[in-house]
Amino acid sequence: MNTTVILGTGIIGVSTAYYLSQAQPPSSIHLVEPSPVLFASASGFAAGFLAKDWFSPSVAAVGALSFEEHSRLAEEFDGREKWGYMKSSGVSYTAGRRDGETKARGDDWLRGGGSRADGLEVSNVSSEGYVPRWLRRSEGDVVESISEEGSTAQINPLRLCQFLSKTCVDRGVQLHHPAKAISVHSDNRNELSSIRILNTDTQTETDVPCTKILIAAGAWSSRVFETLFPNSDMKLPISSLAGHSLVVRSPRWSKEHEGKGCHAVFTAGEDGYSPEIFSRIGGEIYVAGLNDASLALPSLPTESKIEEKSIKILKETAKQLLGEKEDLDDLEVLKTGLCFRPVTHKGTPILVKLPEKSLGSIETRGGDEGGVWLAAGHGPWGISLSLGSGKVMAEMIQGRPPSVNVTELGL
Ligand SMILES: Cc1cc2nc3c(=O)[nH]c(=O)nc-3n(C[C@H](O)[C@H](O)[C@H](O)COP(=O)(O)OP(=O)(O)OC[C@H]3O[C@@H](n4cnc5c(N)ncnc54)[C@H](O)[C@@H]3O)c2cc1C
Ligand SMILES: *[C@@H]1O[C@H](CO)[C@@H](O)[C@H](O)[C@H]1NC(C)=O
Ligand SMILES: *[C@@H]1O[C@H](CO)[C@@H](O)[C@H](O)[C@H]1NC(C)=O
Question: Which ligand is nearest to the CA of 108?
């Protein structure tokens, strides 16, 4: 089997390694990660909300496959215990109106384009079961169900990443960390034959013979491509969208409540701030929705600088919506974060084998023997789409027929 080097160990990289290692000798798979801390990127800081069918048509098949794989893996490896896999209900929350005031409905922005739940059917469900007990209700507010039973779930994405990478390493996948690829080399037919990896701790360089490379470096993917293929005149169409997040503990969400399922609350936003709140197994409530396209991508995820003013806004939201009453602050902050989603103009991920002519002066071995692939740009949905993307990428790289048709997710 041809050696494959995967650049980036976010959830897309480790998912692909997981599926690849089921169908080829694991020692022929290499993972390369420059961040001194693993999963310090979006994959370790995301909320972990999963949906079955909240996607645009070109992503629907991989979305459904992914949701199924999440459920299958959770079943097989005790995902509830290991990574907090749990069914979830999605609701839209609209604050009450004061006299004469017209407020946006909770789902307005969900339907507004580019959002997580764009185009969803909204239905009113009177059953209190849909309303999370940790949400503070106030007069005139409206809580509506926006998910069908069994079509949404919740995980802790950091723990799923840890499970997948540990499984890969236990199987024999080779992890280079902290390390980065600095150049690619070709044989006498000018076909890709090795990649040079620099261990950034020891400053030692190693040439790993390989004919296949997968770029799965999230928001850093276009930088990786530029470094390795400097003669290419193509720029990968992937940019970044920063998002702050906050994890809190509330006395109203603890182990005894978890059995009934998690909740996802989407609220109406102003000035582009549409708070999203998720309860997770382990007594955690995750708050995000504050995004900033102007924050520049740092050179490594560990170099992100959290903006205190953003965290303050998230804390204020948490206090308003989760506090027991107006002036009582009984929430404990467990974690704050800033991470960068990889985004594309189309709003859909790119899962593709890069055309040979786009690589500049280097070629790759023909047939199923070589190539350079890209799996990135999952935007707000990379956790949900992770396992399906990883499965399909593994199939493409190994030259097997893909489980679902992803031709529309090309460049
Ligand atoms: C606040 C927030 C909340 C979110 N909530 C959800 C959610 O609830 N559900 C959902 O489905 N999605 C969610 N997402 C989206 C999700 O987090 C991303 O789509 C997903 O994590 C992207 O995974 P990735 O592996 O492509 O990228 P990343 O997780 O960014 O991983 C890329 C990796 O590449 C590495 N890298 C950088 N440079 C190089 C290099 N030169 N060589 C090799 N590797 C390199 C990075 O260090 C990093 O480890 C959320 C995102 C944010 C920001
Ligand atoms: C849901 O109920 C609220 C309050 O009863 C109502 O204003 C709203 O129009 C309903 N939404 C739908 C989609 O039926
Ligand atoms: C995949 O979908 C594309 C268009 O979306 C279509 O042209 C192609 O024939 C499909 N491939 C297979 C194998 O079904």
Answer: 2
Specify the ligand 3 atom closest to the Cα of 401.
13
- The domain segmentation of the chain, as residue ranges, is 4-43+158-238+345-409, 86-151+244-343
Instruction: Check residue 118 and give its pLDDT.
Output: 46
Q: What pLDDT is attached to residue 99?
A: 53
In angstroms, the Cα distances linking 370 to 33, 107, 359, 362, 374 are: 22, 46, 13, 12, 14
**What atom of ligand 3 comes closest to residue 408's alpha carbon?**
5
Pocket test for ligand 3, best of 405, 406, 408, 409 (most atoms within 8 A of CB): 405
Whether the Cβ atoms of residue 178 and residue 167 lie closer than 8 Å to each other = no
What does the pLDDT read at residue 138? Answer: 79
Q: Which fold has domain 86-151+244-343?
A: D-Amino Acid Oxidase; Chain A, domain 2 (3.30.9)
Find the 218 Cα to ligand 1 centroid distance in Å: 5
pLDDT digits (tens, 9 = 90+) for 118-167: 445 555 454 445 789 899 887 778 888 888 889 999 999 999 999 999 99
Number of H helices and E strands in the chain, helices first, is: 9, 18
Domain 4-43+158-238+345-409 homologous superfamily, CATH: FAD/NAD(P)-binding domain (3.50.50.60)
Answer whether 229's CB lies under 8 Å from 364's CB.
Answer: no
Q: Which of 91, 127, 137, 144 to mutate to test the pocket of ligand 2 (most atoms within 8 A of CB)?
A: 144
Give pLDDT < 50 ranges for the chain: 109-115, 118-119, 124, 126-128
